[in-house]
Amino acid sequence: MSAGTVAVVVPDDLAVPSWDLYELSIPCTVFGKPQPDLADPWYDLRLCSAGTGEGPAPPASSALAVRTRYGLDDLAGADTVIVTSVPDACVQEDAPVPPGLTAALRRAHDAGARMVSLCTGAFALAAAGILDGRRATAHWMHTAQLAKRHPEVRVDDSVLYVDDGDVLTSAGLTAGLDLCLHLVRRDLGAHVANQLARRMVVPAHRPGGQAQFIDLSVPGTDDDGLAPVLAWAQERLHEPLTVDDLARRAAMSPRTFYRRLREATGTTPLQWLLNQRLGRAQSLLESTDLPVERIGELSGLGTAGNLRHHFLRQVGVSPTEYRRAFPVRAPRASGAAAHPPR
Question: Do 181 and 242 lie in a common domain?
Answer without folding.
Answer: no
